[in-house]
Amino acid sequence: MIIGYVIGQATTQEALILAERPVRLGTYVVLEYDNVKALGLITNVTRGSPMLDDNMNDIEIVQRLKQFNNSIPVYTKAKVKMLCDMNNHFLMPDIPPFAGTPAREAEDEELKSIYSQDGQIRIGSLIGKNVEVKLNINSFARHLAILAATGSGKSNTVAVLSQRISELGGSVLIFDYHGEYYDSDIKNLNRIEPKLNPLYMTPREFSTLLEIRENAIIQYRILRRAFIKVTNEIREKLKEGQIPFSTLNSQFYELMRDELETQGNSDKKSSAKDEVLNKFEEFMDRYSNVIDLTSSDIIEKVKRGKVNVVSLTQLDEDSMDAVVSHYLRRILDSRKDFKRSKNSGLKFPIIAVIEEAHVFLSKNENTLTKYWASRIAREGRKFGVGLTIVSQRPKGLDENILSQMTNKIILKIIEPTDKKYILESSDNLSEDLAEQLSSLDVGEAIIIGKIVKLPAVVKIDMFEGKLLGSDPDMIGEWKRAEENERIAKGFADFGTEIGD
Ligand SMILES: Nc1ncnc2c1ncn2[C@@H]1O[C@H](COP(=O)(O)OP(=O)(O)OP(=O)(O)O)[C@@H](O)[C@H]1O
Q1: Which has the closest alpha carbon to 23: 86, 65, 77, 99?
Q2: What total number of domains does the chain contain?
Q3: Strands 307-311 and 189-192
Q4: Which domain holds residue 76?
Q5: Which of 324, 466, 311, 314 is nearest to 389 (CA)?
Q6: What is the ipTM, given to two decimal places?
Q7: How far apart are CA 430 and CA 433, in angstroms?
Q8: Engineering a disulfide at 4: which of 19, 109, 382, 383 sits with its beta carbon 3.0 to 4.6 angstroms away?
Q9: Sequence-distant contacts of 236-239: CB under 8 A, at least 24 apart
């Protein structure tokens, strides 16, 4: 059905149409001209009247005109972003439409040939259309950023994608900052306790746990020497069967404390030794449940075909950084091992999801996680390690990492500075698409990158299970509390009667 005609000058990137009736932002249109069958997306709509233009400043004229019932001529103009030439392998059109070219709404079948056929993972449907959108799972290895203002649907998107990837036999590892996935009823869930075994850790990871910064050179040297000596000693004793498993953790604690004392004494600055000892003892007091030398290597905990979730809720941000960076390092190293010798290492590709990514991948801080996430962003694709970062503060993200996220699922973004930051870090997000971000509703997203054939404006499916992060049912909880108070009062009155 024709909705309007091209007017003015058009380019191969965009055209302006004068519409016969109001059209909706995000509508897909088809322009056919000179053997081109161009698919376009309406990215901007304006309505006006030649009779009541911006210069009108007499309200009486408007009132008199209004008395003549709709005799005011109005127009609707819509900007169309050209997406592809469906007659030429979905490449961009090489000639622009001419003025007068009719624009019609795209048929569902035409849109299905683009959005529903090649992908493997359903994520939702084109907004206002009965056209499902399927994502190309292989392109997840080119990394993905899920960005949105708070409450716009990031967690729902992660849950829908993770569950459907696992149902295809794929593997996801979510670092769960708020515990919303760990306590959810996502299918194929594999809960992983955030345990760290020093025998599989690097000195740098262990020093991060103790909040010994990179620039605390003397402290780090003391810790590093002690950590290497103690872990090597424990490995030797384990090999000779000299340490019972049950005393491993306590032995580690005592050996470390003694060795830190020794290493510290050999250093001129005894204050550095005291500082390291304090940090070690404080950490072990607070997080002894995280350090566990009986715990297996994390690679053995991550399961294929599962949504593997590491809950970070009981850790502070430094310990979270140590846990996440340790997992990322072990996964990348282990996938490299497997690629080299097929009988060792992690035997399947995996997608690592970092929630609240602006905390771990901040542009203003050099965390260990940022180092390993950058390594995976650069090298991961070759080894089947895809990174997915999730954030409601895009402008807080490291721009190098964000720019390496080839794919983006961008839900509602309100902050202009966030929008600008995303635009600057995406070579496949155009200004006019970015303009639409503030008008998206909850659960609506613009999807760009290799995971879709063309930019898509999608209503993401609702996760059919329960997510902790979903908005609380306040009314329901108030009613339940009132009911419980009534029951409790009933029992109390009953008790009093018996007493009398
Ligand atoms: N695709 C969707 N369709 C309908 N409702 C949705 C959709 N996605 C999310 N919602 C609803 O919006 C609310 C917020 O969703 P969600 O927790 O996923 O957002 P979020 O961006 O992760 O929020 P936060 O930043 O607080 O973690 C929830 O009540 C959820 O049910």
Answers
A1: 77
A2: 3
A3: parallel
A4: 1-105
A5: 324
A6: 0.98
A7: 5
A8: 19
A9: none
> Looking at the DSSP assignment, which residues form a beta bridge with residue 310?
175, 192
Closest ligand 1 atom number to CA of residue 471:
29
The pLDDT assigned to 74 comes to: 87
Any domain includes 184: yes
Distance (Å, rounded) from C-alpha 303 to C-alpha 224? 32
Q: Which atom of ligand 1 is nearest to the CA of 390?
A: 22
The string of pLDDT tens digits covering residues 5-18 is 999 999 999 999 99
Supply 470's token pair: 């979903």
421 and 339 in a common domain: yes
Highest mean pLDDT among 158-162, 279-283, 287-291, 336-340: 158-162
Is 369 found in the same domain as 233? no
CA of 469 to the centre of ligand 1 (A): 8
**Inside any domain, residue 479:** no
Percent of the chain predicted with pLDDT > 90 = 67
pLDDT in tens, 285-327: 888 888 999 999 999 999 999 999 999 998 988 889 989 999 9
Q: How far is the CA of 151 from the centre of ligand 1 (A)?
A: 5
pTM: 0.87
CA of 146 to the centre of ligand 1 (A): 13
For residue 326 the two structure tokens come to 């340790």
Q: Whose C-alpha lies nearest to ligand 1, atom 11?
A: 153
